What we know:
This protein has helices at residues 34-49, 68-85, 94-99, 162-172, 190-202, 225-230; strands spanning 2-7, 12-19, 22-29, 58-62, 89-92, 110-118, 121-129, 135-137, 142-144, 156-160, 178-183. The protein is an alpha/beta fold.
Amino acid sequence: MNLLAIETATEACSVALIHGQELIARSEIAPRRHTELVLPMADALLAEAGIDRHALDAIAVGRGPGAFTGVRLGVSLAQGMALGLDLPVITISSLAALALEAPEEGEETAILAVIDARMGEIYAASYRRDGHGGLIALDEERICTADSLQLPVASAWQVVGTGWATYATELSQRLTGTLHSADGVRYPQAAHVAELALAEFNAGRAQAPELALPVYLRDKVALTLVEQGKA
């Protein structure tokens, strides 16, 4: 199995390759440089594995939510590569990939994945581990303010993502149980996109490239002048 994964939804630009039983990855925190970095990263991983693009079985991509340009870039690249190579695409939630950045704990510990969405809002979703390297979603992805976030009941929580760095006070008040860990400098990574995508591929849930769609959550991508004046 050769699966290439791309994740560009946030400040982190990352690419990963599953090659047989091995997973290799490249990642860099590089705001506004994703376009110049992502394809060279992919080529470097393929060269390291000793294969070319025609040996790939599937392309995976973090579908968002995240920065509009980053999400669009990742999905467009995945679609373009898959169409050119006649491969299926697996789209993975960038929030789910982020959740796997939390330290491994028992299956009863809930994980809040939260990305700073700017404009006073966050992207958020909560999960727990399924005991097999995957995740079980506890609620739906959404965009909201930190102080309006509604979370399911859990006895213990881990929080991961840039939303914590910006809104730690507000988010800590929304948790329904004990906070075990929190890390505000974690980003979705292609390595986790690849891991989640492999399970999806094996379950027969890969799709045609034209059906691989981004998830933005936010309907508008900029504040109006009036809204900026009120902010």
